[in-house]
Amino acid sequence: MHQSDWLLWLLHGEYGVSDYNNTLKVGYDPEIDSYPSWLMSQPYAYMLPSVRAPGAPIGSIKEDVRAQFGFPKNCVVCTGTTDSIAAFLAARTTEPGKAVTSLGSTLAIKLLSNARVDDARFGVYSHRLDDMWLVGGASNTGGAVLRQLFTDDQLVALSHEIDPSVPSLLDYYPLPKRGERFPVSDPNMMPRLQPRPESDTAYLHGILESIARIEAKGYNLLKELGASMVEEVLTAGGGARNDKWTAIRGRVLGVPVRKAEQTEAAYGTALLALKGANTSH
């Protein structure tokens, strides 16, 4: 039982109910809407949860819980989703080609696509979202590298001096340590952060632009594997606060890039619950 399913069970009391996002990693195939036959033939198959769409109504909240917390009598409990998908839903991107890049300690991209893409070589897999697919991959580059080289105050001050309209000629592959998984799968890849120019501003500019190139390569790889072409990128994570970096990424990616207004997983989960509540009445 997944954590979210257990928490929901405490609310509605119906054991063994999940959604097709959480059950993907226990073998559920969202494309055929069932577990594969080889999995169902296993002696433990009876333990697999029943599966519904994310945000689907399960049932009314248990009376003792309702009374304890003061919920209305018509309160409905709905299936959930994973935390990363909930964060994507918070950005309210609903059309193929729309994407969310999370710039935290690492760089993770998620693209809404008409086609499903799965490729274990690069750790690429797809989650179903209604009648579309959320295709994603994650690189080891990102904010962790920046924190190894600059303080927060330096990042703010040096970014202010960067002209994002001017391409950097420095070519790096910023990694916090050896190993990359996406868009290049190479456990032995070493960080490339040399040569370092005398100017700290130029050095930061080169690193930010190099990470943007890795991001662009990631979206290009998803397209080569069969996903929809990226048309707009919303940004989540700490990197979304850097306007100069956003401008650099827009130039490198060649598509509009902006900060997502909402990125909290709790907000996306609330949107799912609202959808489920509306369908239950």
From TrEMBL:
Its EC number is 2.7.1.47. GO terms for cellular component: cytosol. CDD domains: ASKHA_NBD_FGGY_SePSK_AtXK1-like (cd07783). Pfam families: FGGY_C (PF02782). One of its GO terms (biological process) is xylulose metabolic process. Belongs to the FGGY kinase family. This is D-ribulose kinase. It comes from Oryza glaberrima.
